[in-house]
Amino acid sequence: MQPDNAESIATSGKLHLFSLYTDAEASAYAGWVTRAITKMAGPSWQSSSEMWKLELLTANEPIRQMITNHAVGADVIIIAISSLEQGDSDLKPWLDFLTTAPANHSTQGILIGLLGHEEDKSQEMSWLIKQLICCARKINRKFLWQWNGQSAVDDSGWLTEEVKMLLNYKDSHRQRIILREIAVALS
To answer: What CATH number did the domain enclosing 147 receive?
Structure first.
């Protein structure tokens, strides 16, 4: 009976995806990335996702704290901004707040930036990417970014390697826990 239980545990890993977006266009791209990652993970992973609008970070402190706690607990954090003119003033303080939130920084994860459009190349874009890289390092996450647009939707190849590495890491960690539990149960 125990091996069947261990087998069912081993085939149902959990993958939590968190998105923060500025507007409907950014939300659509974040949703696409969430679906692409869920598809890559396949049926042996129980994927959950949540999406929050960036402007909610300024609603009040309890809401900002709740959103931050959800982000800290996520395996993948997606920041989707369709235009650099939107949300810059709210995003930087939240990224700083995110890096100071209590978390298990020994676990791996991914921070994905879906940023503007290719024609938005500017100093502001460079500044934003540097902020996201800094945040990703502090919270022990790989950083990926992509321009919003049809090319990001048409080809998910830019996600594949890091998602595979994350799932392998989580699977290995989960298997060690299962083996420990089986050893304790058998002793």
So the answer is: 3.40.50.360
